[in-house]
Amino acid sequence: MTYCVGLLLDAGMVLLSDTRTNAGLDNISTYKKMFTFERPGERVITVMTAGSLSVTQTTIAQLREAIDDPEATADQSIMLAPTMLKVAEIIGATLARVRSSINAKMEMSQVSTSASMIVAGQRQDGAMRMFLVYPEGNFIEATEDTPFLQIGEHKYGKPILDRVVRMSTSLDDAKKAVLLSMDSTLRSNLSVGMPLDLAVIRKGALCLGETTRIEAQDPQFMAMSQAWSDVLRDGFSEIQI
Amino acid sequence: MTYCVGLLLDAGMVLLSDTRTNAGLDNISTYKKMFTFERPGERVITVMTAGSLSVTQTTIAQLREAIDDPEATADQSIMLAPTMLKVAEIIGATLARVRSSINAKMEMSQVSTSASMIVAGQRQDGAMRMFLVYPEGNFIEATEDTPFLQIGEHKYGKPILDRVVRMSTSLDDAKKAVLLSMDSTLRSNLSVGMPLDLAVIRKGALCLGETTRIEAQDPQFMAMSQAWSDVLRDGFSEIQI
After folding, report:
1. What is the pLDDT, as a whole number, of residue B28?
2. Over the range A113-128, which residues count as b (16 or more CB within 10 Å of their CB) and which as e?
């Protein structure tokens, strides 16, 4: 499985993905699940993926082909699309097409593939927008009421987001929130694994700001994880019932 | 859905279940999911249930019929079974039989029912044992390495258990742990709801000790929930990244 989370805040967008891919428990690999497309100053789009690797890789490859195709129209290339809504539509349509073509091949084995994506971005003169694209190609959008979207193993890390994330949360606090959300998931589910990819897109910057690959032995992440354990353990012993 | 959790500790067993049952989101009811069978001083057995209400109610009813049947053998009545392992086998076999009989009726509608149970108990001269019975009737047992079992919506509340529950945890800390685990689940998932049923079976007591129904507005539970929110919020702001 996978865990990816995206936060849409007043100050910008914060995105975090793990990198574990597995075909069964005995076949584990590391694959990047975060992809950025940008023309600095004009648009920045980040896509995070969960689900069947054959579906997500082919979808990203087809999106890239359309970007590189000099004859592609604004209906085909996410770098030409006039709005972020159109970007989400192109990605949704590509995902649904790839998935249905792969599923047609797999019919014989009665296996079906699935995948979902988080699409976050901003265009010149446009607002920051973040979408969760479903396997069928339809999508929902993050709003003020629910300023975060998750795909993959989302349940372990949801309680902390429910408690602390608001639109007004600062980017630093947001980074902390997604990392702690990931930390809980990593501890409870083997199918989510380090290293992590963290990206920040500041409002109006129209380019990818900070991007960090956090490795398994990253001292800063380990210290944060340990500090959070201490908070929970100490807090737990202090609480009266 | 449902969330039930059971802890098997050196000092005893702690069990907690919610009471929400739903057929779709527009049909929500309250049903007890914790059932105790005891002959004080000889044996105590507590069963918690998750899944299709028609399956779990029929299973519990059939277990009760066997208990009340004066001709039932030690292979049929959980109150006559010579070991807790046999109790788990009887419950597993009853669950699998009920489920397959109900599924046969539902074949036409292409709907299938499922249910799982946590069985915890102790017999005179026997050890405390706790089992998770799967829909097919097979089961696993809690051990020193993993002293807790969960059924239903188990993911939201697993991180706190992973962090604080050990065999040596005191019964008071164990109550706190399962209540906080439930609190996280209640906040993040609508299909789990108050009131809660909490039970404690002390080691060697051979009877149900404390049993508490915790109502939605229970001041003690609300205070604990608020205190935990404060711990998380304060701890969150203190942590450096």
Report:
1. 80
2. bebbbbbbbbbeeeeb
